[in-house]
Amino acid sequence: MKNIFGLVILCLFVLVGCKKFLDEDNKGGITNEEFYQTETGYKTVLTASYSSLRTVFRSTPWLMIAGTDMYQMNRSAGNRALMEYTQLFANNDDILTFYRNCYNGIQTTNIGLHYNDLVDTDEASRNQWKAEFMFLRAFYHLQLIEQFGGIIINNEPTLEGPRVNLPRASLEESYQFVISELEAALPHLSDNKLRVSKAAANHYLAKAYLTRGWDLGQAADFETAKTYAEAAINGYNISIPFEQLWDPTNENNDEFIFSVQYDQESIPNTNQGNEQQAVFGPYLGGSESNHKYMSGGLVPSWNLHNFYEENDARYEATFMLTIYDQYFDYYDAGKDKDEILIRVYYPRVWGREYTQVDSLAWVQGREHQIANNFRHYPFKYNEQAYRAAYQIDMSSPVIKKFDSPATRTIFDTHSSVRDIVLARIAETYFLYAEACIGLNDFATAAQYVQHVLDRPGNAKDGVKLNPTYDIAAAGNQSEALDAYLIESAKEFAGEYLRWAELRRTGKLKEFCGKYNYDIKQVGVDAAFRGIGGQDKIYRPIPQDAIDINEADIPQNPGY
Hints:
This protein is mainly alpha-helical and 559 residues long. The chain has helices spanning 32-35, 39-57, 62-65, 80-84, 93-115, 123-148, 171-185, 198-216, 219-233, 242-245, 302-307, 314-318, 356-363, 383-386, 425-438, 442-453, 477-491, 498-504, 508-515, 517-522, 524-528, 543-547; strands at 71-73, 256-260, 298-300, 322-324, 342-345, 370-376, 420-424. Helices cover 41% and strands 5% of the residues.
C-alpha cells in the first residue's frame, strides 16, 4: 500500500527537532542499518515519531470536531461534507489526509521498534524508548478506531517493499491491540510530561476501555476505565483557575498530560506552527488590522454560547469578548487597558436581550476608549437573530484559549507556537464520570464532574458553579449523558475531543439534530442517511486505501 503505508525512507524524517524533546543529529556516510543501531541515529527515529504528532495536528483535524453540536459552517461553507454529512463520501480529502498521516506516524514507530533490540544503549533507555514507541503506535491506532471502527493493524516495519495485502481487523481485535500495547508500555514510561508519560498511558487506557465499553457493550470495561482514570488523576485536585490554565506563559502546567510540543526555535519558518488559534471564530480582517489571522473555519455555535450559565467565569476565559486596538493588546502586562481603544465588544446579559439602555450604560464615561470604527455584537437569545450577522467580519467572539501572542506579528493561519494540548486531567475526571454513567452510577458521575466545576475562580459569585442539568437527578442513562455532554462542551471548547465523544456515547445524531443549525436545515435524517438507508455514524474508509489494498476491505455502513 505504497501511498498509504508506503516504504518509509527515514532520511525523509530529517525534521527540525523540538528542543523540548530530543536534538536530532543525523550522520552521513553510513547505511540506515548501521546508523539506527547507534544511540544518536536511533534518537532521530524517536524524534521523527514525536514530530509525526505535528503532522497530524498542525492543521485542524476536522474529523475530530466537525459535524457536532459545538461548531457550525462558516460563511464560505468550507468543509461542508464533514460539517453536515450529506456530501460526505469515501473520496473526502480531509479523511484521506488524516488516515494517511496516522498510518505514516505508525510506520515510523514500527521502524523504531524494529531497531530497539539492536541499538547500542543501556537497558533502561532501551526499555523507555520502546515504551514511548509503543504508546505512540497505540495512540494512532486509537485515533483511527474512534473514527473508523475496526481498522488495519499495522505493527510491522516496511523494510523490504510496500505491503499490499493488509486485512481489516475486527473492532474487538483493534481494541485489544491498542490496550495490550498501552498496558505493556505503561511500566517503562517516565513521569516527564514533555515526553510520553505514565499519566498519558493511564489516561488513554481509560479512554480505550471506556470507548470499548460503549462500542461492545461491556460493563466490565467501564470499571477498568475508572481504575486507569484514577491512576492518571493520581490524587490531583483541579486547582488552576481556568484563565491561568490557558495562559500562554503557563504551558506544560500541572494539569496538562499530553501535548504536541511547539516553540519558536523548533519551527523552520514562521508559517510552520499550528493553526489552533486561528480556527474557532469569524474572520477578523486583514493584516492592516493587526489582529490575529482567523481562517473562520469553524464558528462556535449559538448553542455552545447558550450552554454557559451566568455564574460561569469560563465563558469570559474561553471567548475574547473585548478586542482592543490590536487583538493581542489583551495579553500585554503592564498596559492600562482603560487607556486602550476598544475595537469590538461582545456584550451579553443573561436571561434577556441586551438593550439600548444596557449599551448606553456601558458607553457612559467610556467615550475616549472607543475607536472610530468600533463595532459591537450583543448576544441574542434567538438563534436566527444571532446568526443574522454571520456574513460580517468579527460578527461573533472567537475562542482565545489557544492564542499565541509570541507570534503576534506573523499574519498566517499556521503561526501559533502554542502547544496543542491533547489530554489534561479535567478530561480524565470526565472520563471517570462517563464510565460511571455507563454503569448507571449517576451520583458518582456528578461528583467527578463537580470536581472540575469547582475549579478556583469558575464561579463568578465566588461560591459554587452548578451544572446546567444535574447528572445525579437523571432518570435514565440517556438523560445523564445529555447533562454530562453539555458540561463537557463548556469545559473543552475548541479542544479536539467532541466528535469521538458524541460517537462513542451514541449521541452524535441526536445532538446534531438538536443543536447543529446546519444539520437542522437539511434534516437530521437526511444528513446522516447514507447508502442503503444506513446512518453515517463512522467516517468512511478512504476509497484510495481500499483500491490499493489486495485484501478485501469492507466499507463502513452508509458509504
